Amino acid sequence: MSSDPRRQAGSPTSGQKRASNALELGPRKRPMTQDPLVHHGRHFGRAVHTFCNVQTLVTNGLSLMGEDVDEASLTAHKRKEYSMFHALLKMTPGLEARLMESSEEEVIHIADLIQKGANGARADDTKGMKSAVIDWITPKGQILNPHIPRNVKAGRGFNHEHTGALLCPAGLDWGNSETRAKLVSGQMQISGDQWPVLLYANYSYDPEDPWNGLLRSGLLVSAFKHIFTSPSSVDQEPHATRSGNARIHGMHSVTKASTAYVTTQVNLTFCTL
DNA sequence: AACGATGAGTGAATGAAGGC
DNA sequence: GCCTTCATTCACTCATCGTT
């Protein structure tokens, strides 16, 4: 609401602005109907490639398509990019035809719409999970000490006993005060291949078998359900009154990309600003 | 310093479905 | 039929970062 301290005094709220738009366009109507490409872009970002430059992907994809190139001759990177382009075409009805009859400028516009969807979905999921994750990590019938506000990112990360333990790289001992101090102070840098223990089943890491239980934690399952089925499907009988994202987009199985997406989102919810 | 692009975060609109 | 709840999407503001 307008209690947002960042909002300048006297400036209209977004709701007020929308209300004025509604007056121009009639009651209970969105100012503009959204291009379906944005809708499909949302799922593309979640299930195929999160941090994708769609414009580059589409431009390069069209270029390769025009050349009728032998995929075996491509580099691994190009081959992967090309397969993602095909995934995009497959999940977006009419996209291929639309691209084929579009000018260069229109192709860029189309890519922007898909990008807008992907970025928007990411922002929405970040927002939704930020508060939900507090419920998932709080033991039943207990409260976290110190308390972590549901809608504030500050106070998480290594600053908090509980989130710090979950973020602690597998193989390190969060119980060791020296290790903990180095993590909190930032003196100990964590490399990209040091997985946090929150990704492991039962938060348990086996140094003899680092792949055992990786990406199988209950936290990731909850996050996956939250995003792809519905928030209410996480830890109770779902009481959703409409289809979740998976059904809307015809998603029948977990993909590597969707797992990576969920993992990224979960990590983000634990990090401070 | 000014500017633009981008991302994070917010509140509200919309639509679907169930309950009464 | 109306009301309520829930999931999803949208428009918006503000902060941050890179470039000029």
From TrEMBL:
Residues 1-36 are annotated as: Disordered. InterPro entries: DUF6698 (IPR046521). Residues 10-19 have a biased composition (Polar residues). This is Unplaced genomic scaffold scaffold_36, whole genome shotgun sequence. It comes from Hydnomerulius pinastri MD-312.
